[in-house]
Amino acid sequence: MRLPAGVVTRYAIGSIGTGGFATLPGLVLTYYLTDSLGVAALVAGIVITAAKIWDVVIDPVVGALSDRELARRGSRRRLMLVGAGTIWLFFALTFSAPASFGPVVGAGWVLLAFLLTATSFSLFQVPYIALPAELTPGYDERTRLLTWRVVVLTLAILLFGAGGPILRDSTGDPATGYLLMGVVSGVVLTVGMLVATTVAGRAARAAAPSRAASPALPGGIRAHYAAAIATLRRSAPFRALLLTYLLQALATGLMLAGAQYVATWVLHSQAAVTLLFVALIAPAFLAAPLWGAVSARTGKERAFAAAGILFGVAALALLGLQWAPGAWAYIPVAVAGVAYAGMQSLPMAMLPDVISHDERTHGPGRAGAFSGVWTAGETVGFALGAAVLSLTLAVTGYVSSTAAVTVVQPDAAVTGIVVAFSALPAALIALSLVSLRRYRLRRSDIDVG
Predict the structure, then answer these.
(1) Chain segment 79-138, per-residue pLDDT in tens
(2) Were 182 and a residue from 92, 107, 117, 232 both cysteine, which residue would form a disulfide, CB within 3.0 to 4.6 Å?
(3) CATH number for the domain harbouring residue 103
(4) To 5 degrees, how large is the angle CA 282–CA 284–CA 286?
(5) C-alpha 101: how far from its chain's center?
(6) Is the pTM of this model over 0.90?
(7) Total domain count for the chain?
(8) Residues 6 or more apart from 73 whose CB is under 8 A from it?
(9) Host domain of residue 161
(10) Who's near 117: CB < 8 A, 6+ residues apart?
(11) What does each C-alpha distance from 120 to 54, 124, 386 come to in angstroms?
């Protein structure tokens, strides 16, 4: 049965929270640490990676708790509401560290605030990712649901990626600018997430037969991790899809984290970071429905592979910035934007297929476990993107500074920025295509009745 447009719309609006949390910290947090708080590049990478490790630790637990909520209370909504209702505060605190206290305090402040932000995000995101498998059983209807989610996701990336730096620079003072950006962005995150919680009840009603047939879920932290590990062990399609998505998240996370550095030290324009995001997201917004149409003709896995190839070629072309920096770079970025739409919508539409296939093979009741592991994998990818960039900057001699100090970067550091923005993401995409070849599910495996 076709999902009502209102359900599709409300679910898609939740991606305002997903897109904002994935984009803005990935874009500006490393730069905030190194160039406003004076934190060394390597330490900045450690701070962000540590916060993301915490996210990875709790995601499987939240996934199992989400399954227990569904089994006991008939809905995943309560966890989603807690996450949505608290993330605004912690997000604002992340960008309010007092620079006058020095880089050590600043790094500790950001670490603690970002840990709390990640916790709130996990409480919302893990149940949110589990909902599509319960909202509809249809192969193509899931593609429709996730396609419109990615349309909103691309708009959110544009909103936060372009609007965030504009807010930051609007006050003329980095400290108040980052605070303004954090407060406004946090409120927008919360609003988008709260709208999406309204579809949790419909998903619960649709999943009622499976819930009635599902086995009792064990409690305890150890049991939660055991459930997460079991999903990886028994589902080969899930392993292949997760590894592919993790590698691609690492590639896109690396480019996101590097965009501010490319704008500052390669293109020599603070405004360029906004233009880079417009070049990326405007084509992605238009291309998301097209990838849905392509997947309907060729299958999701083939369309996903095509999107990855296109993104990898576009990223590799950006290596030319090393020798000829200029506005031409917006062209391959726009091509990457077309590919990015498919790289987001198609794997997310494939995940419910993996879950429903596992239900038919091993029994129902584990959608939250799948979504917990999936969210952890996505988090690892984006966290490692920022960490790889920080390591590259440290190795190539990047000079950190506070907002009041102007520095000159060595040529090696500028080269490292370009390579991290182009060649490294292209290599990661190539590896992801190898893992995608191991994904064996097809339309006939999903639409069986």
Answers:
(1) 999 999 999 999 999 999 988 888 899 999 999 999 999 999 999 999 998 888 888 888
(2) 92
(3) 1.20.1250.20
(4) 75
(5) 31
(6) no
(7) 1
(8) none
(9) 5-446
(10) 21, 25, 87, 90, 91, 93, 94
(11) 12, 7, 20
